[in-house]
Each structure stands twice: as structure tokens, then as C-alpha cells.
Amino acid sequence: MSDNANLPERREGVEAFIGWFREFFQQFQLAWRLFWDERVTLLTKLVPLGTVLYFLMPADVVPDLALGLGQLDDLAIFLVGIRVFIDLCPPNLVDEHKRALRGEQESWRPTTGPVIDLEVTIPPDGTEEYQSIVDLDVEMPSDEV
Question: How confident is the model over 118-141, as pLDDT tens digits?
């Protein structure tokens, strides 16, 4: 019967681990999206690159020969690297990507085609009929190679 007394504690422990893993996965997705966003500076993107380089370096803070401990320092550096990278990104971009991950808005993508600058003038109500005058100034990219 002593085993059954520990069952709720184990269930809470498993649920806590699943919650931690879910949070880790969400942070990783957020960091991945921010890394590929062109609006994040190159200097900020050096943080995750440095984290990856730490994994590839043969020298570690705790040698990987110590089974378990060697991998824990790698995991800690990875988690801290993700957190620092997200914290260094502009807050409005972080919020934008969080909303996109929750499905609240579509992801922003920069335009690759021509940009049309459009200015419409609408006269005040009651003075004249509505008349739209549009002045388009479009620069088309040349397809010459």
C-alpha cells in the first residue's frame, strides 16, 4: 500500500515534466522563428550561433566523459542560450511571433515583389462628387541577369 500512497506525487511529477517539456518546445519554436526573422540584428543572432558552437567544441565546462553530468552542462548552456536570445530580441517582434505561434495572427513576411506607393485624395463631404486621382510611381525590377 505504500506504493499507492506515492502515486499522486508521481502523477504530479509527470505532469510537471510534460508542462516543462511543452514550455521548452514553445521557447525553441519562438527562438527558431526569431532567428530566421530578418528584423533581428546579426549581433543578436550570434547568441544561438555561439550556443551551437559550444556543442561542437571538444572542450566543455564539465567533460562529457562524466556520464550524465557532461550532458547536463550542455543542456543548461542550450537553455540559457535560448532564453538570452529571446530576451535580446525586440519585444514587439517576440510578441508578434508568440501571437503567430498561438494562431492569433498570420506571420509577417517581407514582400519580394515591387512596392506600389499609392496616395488617394478624398475631398470633404458635400463639396463635390467623390473623385479618385491616383498617382502611381512604380519601379519594376529588371529581369536582366
Answer: 676 666 665 555 555 555 555 555
pTM (two decimals): 0.58
Q: How many Å from the N-terminal Cα to the C-terminal Cα in the chain?
A: 79
Write the burial class of residue 109 (CB in 10 Å: 0-12 exposed, 13-18 middle, 19+ buried): exposed
CB environment 63-76: b (16+ within 10 A), e (fewer):
eeeeeeeeeebbee
DSSP structural state of residue 137: B
What is the tally of helices (H) and strands (E) in the chain? 5, 0
Enumerate residues 6+ apart whose C-beta is below 8 A from 145: none
Domain boundaries, the chain: 2-102
Closest C-alpha among 104, 89, 112, 113 to residue 33: 89
Which residue is it, cell 544561438?
Answer: 48
